[in-house]
Amino acid sequence: MFRYGALRFLLVLIGAFAARKDVIERVKEHFESSSHTNNWAVLVCTSRFWFNYRHVANVLSLYHSVKRLGIPDSNIILMLADDMPCNPRNPKPGTVFNSKYEDINLYGSEVEVDYRGYEVSVENFVRVLTGRVHPATPRSKRLLSDHQSNVLVYLTGHGGDGFLKFQDAEELTNVDLADAIETMFQSNRYNELLVIADSCQSESMYNKIYSQNVLGTSSSLIGEDSLSYDVDHSIGVYIIDRYTHFTLEFLENEVQASGSNRTMADYFDSCPKIKCMSTVGVRTDLYPKDPSRVRVTDFFGSTRNVRVINEVIEFDDEWLKVEPKRY
């Protein structure tokens, strides 16, 4: 009797294991296979002056989210046009908050800013994307992506139809951005690229892009304003924009780890007009995959895709003649 019960238990266990394995395989089959091996993020706040506090909070919020999901500081280029923590009008020096409850200081000691103040210019942004930087530029200020990199580009600030203002002094046009991305494409500097623009009429920032494997999304369509979300009366300014607030809410609540099964389609739907008060723009015609089959963490996280092969790889005589370079 005991032997029969043990055998029955073993059969149930094997069946449960097989069913779980089948579910895992079906989940894998649902998602598009990803060919990237590393992730990079270029996060840019283009605004200065105290009343644009929320734009700094926007970019720092996204910075913390992508770090939590596995993208290391070495693979993040963070550009802040103004130093809000040290602004003399900041009643709480050394801090930046994205909530009126002030529960999390976004500007802790672990934040690594790569471009600060007047270093944040249209020229430097384009140079970062294209890799055309001065030879003496330190590694921390370089986007060292390659043909197997998924790159996230996030822009927040003030904009209009076809432009984004930098420092309230110059403009990045949608043609500038499109040409910089085409240079990246021709130079094999990305595998897939996601452009996120959070500004008024921000849809216009990606509608001139013509390079392959690019996804675009924005906080507003052409002709629409992008609105702020929350005000902290003790600080005296708005502290985050609506689109970024709901992006952060989605990432924090729905994408708990880099293995999350949430998709880019889920992300695009995370801020409907009733929440954002503007219409989220999405462009997918340059992207060959179905966003509903692409994981959010393909862009917002960092995963290493390992492929196991069993076949023997043979090198021909030409490979055997290659000698290591000596310095």
Describe the structure.
This protein has one domain: 3-Layer(aba) Sandwich (Rossmann fold). Helix content is 30%, strand content 18%. The protein is globular, with a radius of gyration of 23 Å. It contains nine helices and twelve strands. The mean pLDDT is 90. Strand 5 and strand 6 form a beta hairpin. By secondary structure, the chain is of the alpha/beta class. The strands form three sheets. It has a seven-stranded mixed β-sheet with strand order 3-2-1-4-8-9-12. Strands 5-6-7 form a three-stranded antiparallel β-sheet. Strands 10-11 form a two-stranded antiparallel sheet. The longest helix is centred in the first third of the chain and has 29 residues. Helix 3 runs parallel beside helix 4.
Please outline the helices and strands:
Elements: H1 2-30, E1 38-45, H2 53-68, E2 76-80, E3 115-116, H3 122-130, E4 149-156, E5 159-160, E6 163-166, E7 170-173, H4 174-186, E8 192-198, E9 214-218, E10 228-232, E11 237-241, H5 242-254, H6 264-268, H7 273-276, E12 281-283, H8 297-300, H9 317-320
Parallel strand pairs: 1-2, 1-4, 2-3, 4-8, 8-9
Antiparallel strand pairs: 5-6, 6-7, 9-12, 10-11
Helix pairs in contact: 2-5, 3-4
Number of domains: 1
As laid out across the biggest beta sheet, the strand order is 3-2-1-4-8-9-12
Order of helices and strands: HEHEEHEEEEHEEEEHHHEHH
Count of strand segments: 12
Pathway: Glycolipid biosynthesis; glycosylphosphatidylinositol-anchor biosynthesis
GO molecular function, one term: GPI-anchor transamidase activity
Signal peptide: 1-18
Keywords: GPI-anchor biosynthesis, Signal
